[in-house]
Amino acid sequence: MTQNSFIEILQVQKLSQESESLIGFNIDSLQKGKKIDNYSISIVGWVLGKGSPAVAVEFLNGGKVLQKVPVSKSRPGVEKRFPKVSEAKSSGFAAAVGVLGLPPVANLKLRCLLADGTIVPLADIKFRHEPLDSGYQPRLQPLVLNSTGRSGSTWFMRLLSQHPAIVACPIYAYETRVWPFWMQLLQFLSQRANPIETPFQADYPPKAAAFCQETLDAFYEHIAEAQGKIISSSELTYFVEKNAFNPNLDLLTEIYPQAKEIILVRDFRDVASSILAFNKKRGNDGFSRNKFKSDEEYIKGVMKNASSGLRERWKKRRQEAYLVHYEDLILSPEKTLKGALEYLNLDNSQEAIANMLEKASENTAYTQWHQTSSNAKDSIGRWRQDLEPSLQKLCNRVLADALREFGYSVN
Length: 411
Fold this sequence. Notes:
The protein contains 14 helices and 14 strands. By secondary structure, the chain is an alpha/beta fold. The protein has a six-stranded antiparallel β-sheet with strand order 3-1-9-8-5-6, with no helix packed on it. Strands 11-12-10-13-14 form a five-stranded parallel β-sheet. It has a three-stranded antiparallel β-sheet with strand order 2-4-7, with no helix packed on it. The longest helix is centred in the middle third of the chain and has 24 residues, at 204-227. It starts with 6 loop residues before the first strand and ends in a 6-residue tail after the last helix.
């Protein structure tokens, strides 16, 4: 790619120019070899349904819908070509699909939604793009703790926050999430609202990214100062936040190449037990339990999706991320912390780890309220006593793939 181009189209494969469901379809001015001088792909075209009108076009990557636009734009040429089709006059669609946060080489799939619910594949666009470089040198790097709820993330956050080179918002239970807001804003600001009518400057995304990074630095430097921590330009320092499947995590790692990710897992059957016990203790059906009529439906819905999401994240990021088991964190905290700190390239001396454990172990009324077991060791394998036999069998069945992926036995 040239110095001023950020995207190159590698292939445009049209799948359904004519079919049982379509009269016709086309993408305008997008062909193999096209180079684009910004971070979004403008896609303009038209589509006509045969038995049912085309109402929308979706753009997907990895099975995820990135954007959905209506089929409603005026297309005089299509109307002239198909004068007997009433929908031809407004058969056009247009979108600007941002590529920030997508893999360097990726596929964009287009599909049409017809009024009767039929979904028709339209095209597969393969492209590569340059990573977004803001030009800004962050003073702090992101550390993302990926986990499900009730997996020990609060305890792990408390431990990590005691390290002099890791800054965390101290509001218990460490649920402050700042970077997702700025990444969502960056995604929004870096994508044109209208690919035809709105002028766009190629240097705007890097400027927007630099602004987001500078703001994150300022926020966590303020917290570090209040905690007596010193931010040194010559030493690594992280800000750490919990994460729960935020869709912009890949954008964060794109603009922060030195970002680190720890995936924290716990036996998902124990997670289910802890959630149900915590809800009972609070007298409130949290963790989306209130959306389901029964514990069985909750496990088949939320628990299965959460465990599958963490499994897919680990499969995708196993070369870059670091895996921690809750059980190891409880039973062998020194060894587990040493491994995590080595991954972060931070001081992992016996003295540093002992200091972290001592400071984090202070018991408070809030930590007691957060617990649902008499002690942490009793929380391991609690599902065998807490869950009814029918729920145990259900968990073993619907959570089997994730349990095996992370080394838990299914029985």
